[in-house]
PmoA family protein (Algoriphagus sediminis), 322 residues
Amino acid sequence: MSYKKIICLCIAFSLGAHVAFGQLSGLTKTSKGYDFSLNGKVVLSYQTEKEPVPEGVDDVFSKSGFIHPLKSPSGQILTRIQPSDHYHHYGIWGPYTRATIDGREVDFWNIGDRKGRVEFAHVISEKVAGGAAELNVRQHHFDLKAEKSKQIAIKEDLRIKVKPADDNRYLVDYTTTIFTELDEGILLDDYRYGGGLGFRATEIWGRDNSTILTSEGDIRKTADGKNARWIIVKGESNSPAGQSGILFLSHNTNRAHPEPMRVWPEDNYDGKGNVFIEFCPIRHESWMILPNNKYTLKYRMIVFDGDLSPEEAENYWRDFVK
């Protein structure tokens, strides 16, 4: 490399030019699941083993099939599992809540009700190529009140793909495809929770040190029940920049796009640790899942330290759907 090029690179760095977060280091199987790493540091884990519950908590809340921890580029943990207010919350995950199967109500979300649950089943494929790591898994949605042969109500193929993005950020593609083999199909009833992509944020974040902004200009006070193409969730952290966050993107081919959201209001569980958002495709309209038909939802997350502007969010969304 010439002296002139070195000088130009140094100037670019000093001016804050967009620089890739780093080369993907790998996808590693562990005793609990799979770790995705960048620059030799783990940034995201998908859990294949059931997570033990805290002492004194009913074991029904132990589960597998979720993302945690998800970390910012500087290593700040942005997800949370098994919070004492909702032991069934698991980092990044997306079970459906009210489903009608053969005339019965089944709840895959509130696992404490013992009506349904979602678990990791097996790995379909894994690869590291082109600077990206990809894991494809099968998850089973169980109808626990059904006869044994019909308890696997929904089969879900989940694809998680991680690769560097610009400006010391990285991206996560989260693609979920569901189908049922039940002859009668399944009605996913309209409800304020369920499906899509849910995110329970770090216990550090609360009303006074975190913010939410959507593509439509809604903030935490006004976002619940509204539709959006993207949503930025960011808050105080121990990163050098003092702040970290995630931009969540909904693909324009998704059902009910721009997609309805569930966003906890500011006074929900007052104090810290009360940040929850979800892209919820059945928020306003039920969804009939016909037998042996496949239904896909695509999401992308841009994980960052520091700040991310609405203009950048819009550019990321356009790049995602292009």
